[in-house]
Design goal:
Number of helices: 14
Radius of gyration: 21 Å
Order of helices and strands: EHEEEHEEHEHHHHHEHHEHHHH
Low-confidence stretches: 88-111
Mean pLDDT: 88
Number of strands: 9
Strand content: 5-15%
Distance between the termini: 31 Å
Helix content: 40-55%
Largest sheet: 7 strands, antiparallel
Length: 331
């Protein structure tokens, strides 16, 4: 475990309710059965394994909370509230057929669709405890992003917001956009993930809008503008879950997709799942996220970088922004 980076803490360690901030983690993988991964998690943290279907396992009552291991597609699982087949006659036959078809779909889908470990939200300072999940996946021979050309797999971090102040939320969003090219460069985002568009960068028109020095709207305008330019979950920093939590009616009018669920977190989707690289860790990706939050605390630098970004982007002979923006990070 010596390859794991030292954990960095964000500038704001309390959440919107005054409690210690938490972070949720989702890890995509392939080549290991969900039952085996669920068993390993129970071995690590205690708890009881509950098989909902062949492609979804709950690990409940662990010392960290409840984990979930599942195939990342709704079509392989029963709908929320749907029970296992119990009826007899024709109705029972149809329910059994539907259940069997979901299982077959899951078996076939697992050839290209990732499984994922969904970890419970934990206090930020306890994040290194989840490194044991990565080590267990490595030991079981799990494959990650770079093990197959079709593996557009990622790791997703869900940091709780520190405050509901829309200006702080916007400052973090501005900082992530300003550091996007730098993050993509140091992460070396896999080509399959770029091609599959699971974590797209923000459109230029939106970037130029929100990086303006004077752009500090209220919550309603912030959400409305976001929905105009980003009516999709496929952004490297998906704000839909947070905005849905802040104003469900406003977001649902534009985004009826039930796969978007409200939660008081950022949904950071950019990192690859480099499971088999021994020097890669969840802590490393978290530390990179903390660079974003540190930048968000300095409104003067945000304004200066925003102006420089727009100028560079509109220049005929633009510079490499991933390299250029580092001058603000080291000063």
């Amino acid at each position: 475990m010596s390859s794991i980076s030292k954990l960095r803490l964000p500038p704001r360690d309390k959440n919107y309710g005054g409690d210690s901030r938490r972070v949720g983690v989702e890890i995509e993988f392939a080549a290991v059965s969900p039952s085996r991964v669920a068993s390993r998690i129970a071995d690590l943290y205690g708890g009881a394994v509950d098989c909902e279907d062949p492609h979804r396992y709950h690990i409940r009552y662990t010392r960290l909370g409840d984990f979930l291991v599942e195939l990342d597609t709704q079509y392989a699982h029963r709908a929320p509230g749907e029970v296992a087949p119990t009826a007899s006659g024709f109705q029972g036959l149809m329910e059994t057929f539907s259940h069997a078809m979901r299982e077959i779909y899951g078996d076939l889908g697992s050839l290209v669709i990732p499984y994922e470990v969904i970890c419970p939200p934990i206090n930020v300072e306890r994040l290194p405890e989840l490194e044991a999940v990565l080590e267990a996946l490595r030991q079981e021979g799990a494959q990650g992003t770079r093990d197959n050309l079709l593996h557009a797999f990622g790791v997703q971090l869900n940091p709780e917001i520190a405050t509901m102040d829309p200006h702080w939320v916007l400052a973090v969003l501005k900082a992530e956009i300003l550091l996007s090219e730098w993050l993509r460069s140091i992460i070396s985002v896999d080509m399959a993930r770029r091609f599959m568009a699971f974590a797209d960068p923000f459109p230029k028109a939106y970037v130029h809008l929100i990086l303006k020095k004077e752009y500090w709207p209220d919550k309603d305008q912030l959400i409305d503008d976001y929905l105009i330019y980003n009516p999709t979950r496929n952004r490297e920093l998906d704000m839909l879950p947070l905005f849905l939590w802040l104003d469900a009616d406003r977001v649902r009018r534009k985004i009826p997709d039930k796969l978007v669920k409200p939660r008081p977190t950022f949904h950071y989707r950019l990192p690859d799942a480099n499971i088999r690289e021994p020097r890669w860790s969840l802590t490393l990706e978290w530390n990179r996220w903390c660079v974003v939050e540190r930048l968000a605390e300095d409104r003067t630098v945000l304004a200066d970088m925003g102006a420089a970004y727009i100028e560079n982007d509109q220049s005929i002979l633009s510079e490499d922004w991933a390299l250029r923006c580092t001058e603000w990070l080291v000063l």
